[in-house]
Amino acid sequence: MTAQYTYSIGTPGTPWSESEKQQWYENQVIKRSYLNEVVVHIDSLRPEFNVEQYGTLEYNAGRYPLYVISTKEFNAQKPTVLITGGVHGYETSGVQGALRFAMQYATDYQDDFNLLIAPCISPWGYETINRWNPMAIDPNRSFVPQSLSPEAAQIMAYVSKLGMSITAHIDLHETTDTDNSEFRPALSARDGIFQDNWQIPDGFYTVGDAQNPQETFQRAVIESVEKVTHIALPDEAGKLIGSTMTQHGVINYALKDLGLCAGFSNASYTTTTEVYPDSVNATPEECILAQVAAVTGALNYLREQKL
């Protein structure tokens, strides 16, 4: 038996029943405040932007309103850019990076773009520092029709209802040491299927769409972030988290096939950012700034293309 199956809940090799999922849920503890760390900043943006509640999550732990921040005057002639954070609530810089961009930089781009910013898609995950939602579902494998994740379903429904084409979608994430110490062992236990640990990359990288990689767009994001923090290098096999690097700091996934957030919007340009907050060479603030640099790098590239 490997360490992957050493988990406190369930029987190795047997998928969890609802009983084990409930046991897992009961072990989760609120560790920080969505209201005090996220909503208060969203509210501060009301004078300059539209702030709309697009949904609500009703859980035993509480009621979580879901918000999107957008430019006040949408113009059909401008490209629309979707920025999402906190799909995995434990990935702090994704949430705070989206907020930091909205608070400090979004006004610089609203003349050129319609901006849609959903900074925290999984607020319960943010409060409990968790990858999953209370039903032990990973929202970032749930951007599919008839999604079982209300976090994924509600943002998809909101974007669909807008009825507009999304030019670019930037989804902000982290890869952390807890991926190996907690979340992949939990995944092994939940599904009863062995999960290899991956080598956690030290540094920033992006995940493009294997069906639409947009290599120069990815490169622009990397070059922007490289001014703020270091870019992850490949392992001995030339890979990051088991995937072959296609260029410096970039790997590709089949976004739609995997039900990943960046794939649901059908955007022409997509990127999923990944920073490593546990690096001895980076600080929490540096990780936030890296997320901001990824967004501004993407927008600067799109502006230069005169889309």
Automatic annotation (TrEMBL):
Gene3D superfamilies: Zn peptidases (3.40.630.10). CDD domains: M14_REP34-like (cd06231). One of its GO terms (molecular function) is zinc ion binding. GO terms for biological process: proteolysis. PROSITE patterns: PEPTIDASE_M14 (PS52035). Keywords: Carboxypeptidase, Hydrolase, Metal-binding, Protease, Zinc. It holds the Pfam family AstE_AspA_cat. It comes from the Bacteria. InterPro entries: AstE_AspA_cat (IPR055438), Peptidase_M14 (IPR000834). Residues 23-287 form the Peptidase M14 domain. Its cofactor is Zn(2+). Belongs to the peptidase M14 family. This is Zinc carboxypeptidase-related protein. It comes from Paraglaciecola polaris LMG 21857.
